[in-house]
Amino acid sequence: MHDYIAIQRKAEEQEQKGFFIPSSPSSKATVVAVGLKVREIVVGDVIQFNRYAGYVIKGDGVDVTLIHEGDVLFIEIEREAPSF
């Protein structure tokens, strides 16, 4: 896998007059595996990436997408709200 990252896309929905309509492929995903040469991304990270990048692998009811580390736009970081 070298510099590849295995991800599971998050469902992206749009609301239109009270109905939820699935949209095009989501650009938000959770990392499920990383290659040996991936430096800054770890399993469990939530990332934003180029939505049309990668290769989709289907199996056992789970779709996994393989993307290059360079296709990641940013890593979402959850932070606690400051207490005053």
Please tell me the overall pLDDT: 82
The portion of residues assigned to helices is under 10%
Order of helices and strands: EEEEEEEE
Counting structural domains, the number is 1
DSSP strand count? 8
Distance between termini? 46 Å
Rg computed from alpha carbons, rounded to a whole number of angstroms: 15 Å
The top level CATH class name: Mainly Beta
What share of residues are in beta strands? Answer: over 45%
CATH topology: 10 Kd Chaperonin, Protein Cpn10, Chain O
Order of strands across the main sheet: 6-7-1-4-5-8
Structural class: mainly beta
Biggest sheet features: 6 strands, antiparallel
CATH architecture annotation: Roll
How large is the count of helical segments? Answer: 0
| Shape call | globular
Uncertain runs are: none
Properties at a glance:
two-stranded antiparallel sheet; 84 residues
Describe this structure in words.
It is a single chain. The protein is mainly β and 84 residues long. The protein has a single domain (4-75), classed as 10 Kd Chaperonin, Protein Cpn10, Chain O (Roll). The protein contains no helices and eight strands. It has strands at residues 4-9, 13-16, 19-22, 28-34, 46-49, 55-59, 62-68, 72-76. Strands 6-7-1-4-5-8 form a six-stranded antiparallel sheet, with no helix packed on it. A hairpin with a 2-residue loop joins strand 2 and strand 3. The termini are far apart. The mean pLDDT is 82. GO terms for molecular function: ATP binding; protein folding chaperone. Keywords: Chaperone.
